[in-house]
């Protein structure tokens, strides 16, 4: 029992310490999920050992407090927190409790994305904004009225003609993703520490003394609930949200009304897949019983309503130990550091590596081996280190002076500022990276030609220059690991097939600095042949609208390089295509039409459908705007489909897509 008592005491102190870091100092040391795990462990120990339960335990009260730096405001009605879970099983249990309590009644729910921001309360008297406050400890908040008034999303006077005598709107103040990136750049330029995440940026911007600084931070506000209202009543959450919109408040784009557990789970799955399409961070979904009388029947616990629950998404941030910093050589000779970490669960996967970008970033973060660090993962992006949580080392990791691949000198060119390079053109690591890029899917797309095969061929001394790929024969593969007759034949076929790739693929495969896949297509379509590109002047490149001064110089210098001429000559000699097919389709309704693809297609891989559209003169983008012409939808299409309908954009399924392709072919034959 003594061990249990010590553990409970430790957890209470640790949770209070993290509350102080999160709510008062806006400088958390651990992720939300790690904090939630501490709270859940304490709840479990207190439930199993009621003798140790205390009324002032962090499990019995709303997290946070009102800072003495601000005047304090007592909320007329408590601002409670929500019970949360990361488990669908817990959602089922919550749903079953509600269904049992409201037996025989149809239950409607409203689902709202859970914004990762700072809770705020706005009090209006006769329709005029009078008080703005933080949640604080749920009973007492901080007076941030002047700061609140700088937020453009918040009306100083509501837009309805006859407002209630008094009403209190509650919602979330947040910083969107674009503004967060710009704010952190500005912080770094001014020699200040950047914010760890948008939530900290919102809190740090709102909870400080100078309203002018707050006004520069471009904060936003979403309304989601209310406290006390005199002179107005609502039957449901959905009716209340409609009232908010009429008053001039902003609501989230993807609110959802549902009436079953299956619909709740379907929306959860869609939101999980498409959360990164939003321009603001959400860390979960809030599910509420819609009807207010039913909410009243369900009631409250000490700190949470029983009629609502927050489903939290897998964490995007976690803390772990940085075991080693590995230095690698890229295909252009740039020396790139990366972090090898103690494995940690993050955003649904186990993370053991993170990017460190460059050595300037290492110095800025003061990172070294053995430090405890906060890492972040957004969508499918490689995890990155946000900051050092615990410093276990001396100073920061220094850039090497000798190339780890060829032992040549590493230099830092003044014009490149942060880039350290190995300048040995025969560096084995650079050639290996160039091979990997050349055969990749977006480049020459040689199916089956992966890193393992490249390493085996290099070890067998079969590859010395890029064009050696096209001199490989069946006999070169048959003796390699996992290569039998069928696989050897298939890889030979893939190599032969890649010779006919369009010029744009070859340009991208060459790995020109500053030139991506889209840029390669633009260049190939402009010049049509590789010879025309070699003959082009600096002015010829600058005439292309999408190409600026820096890129034009890069292209001119690249194609004047004698070694590049030699590479192209050897590729010509082995039969690689050097021409871009004409994509202009006379009379085609696909010409310059912009397509967005969403959902799961039955008869096409996403890349295949995209290639068909581009081959017929269309363009592919990832996000929907007023410039989008068509949205091709498959199964489980979510937020993009909803936005397309709102913007009145033409939505087509695979059957309509097939018809359009058929019409295109008829037009072309004519």
Based on CA atoms alone, the radius of gyration comes out at: 30 Å
CATH superfamily of the largest domain: DNA ligase/mRNA capping enzyme
Which CATH class of the largest domain? Alpha Beta
**Gross morphology:** globular
Distance between the termini: 87 Å
Mean pLDDT: 86
SS class = alpha+beta
Q: Helical region count?
A: 24
Spans of 5+ residues with little confidence (pLDDT < 50)? 665-670
Measured by DSSP, the beta-strand proportion falls in 15-25%
Main beta-sheet strand count, sense and barrel state: 5 strands, mixed
CATH fold call of the largest domain = D-amino Acid Aminotransferase, Chain A, domain 1
| CATH architecture descriptor text of the largest domain | 2-Layer Sandwich
Helix content: 25-40%
The total number of structural domains is: 5
Strand order of the largest sheet: 2-11-10-3-9
Oligomer: single chain
DSSP E strands, number: 22
How would you characterize the overall build of this protein?
The protein has 670 residues and is of the alpha+beta class. The protein folds into 5 domains: 2-60, Helix hairpin bin (Helix Hairpins, Orthogonal Bundle), CATH 1.10.287; 72-312, D-amino Acid Aminotransferase, Chain A, domain 1, CATH 3.30.470.30; 317-420, Beta Barrel (OB fold (Dihydrolipoamide Acetyltransferase, E2P)); 428-573, DNA polymerase, domain 1; 594-669, BRCT domain (Rossmann fold, 3-Layer(aba) Sandwich), CATH 3.40.50.10190. The protein has 24 helices and 22 strands. The strands form 6 sheets. A 5-stranded mixed sheet has the order 2-11-10-3-9. A 5-stranded antiparallel sheet has the order 14-13-12-15-16. It has a 4-stranded antiparallel sheet with strand order 5-4-7-8. Helix 23 links the parallel strand 21 and strand 22. Helix 1 (2-24) runs antiparallel to helix 2 and helix 16 crosses helix 17. It is globular, with a radius of gyration of 30 Å.
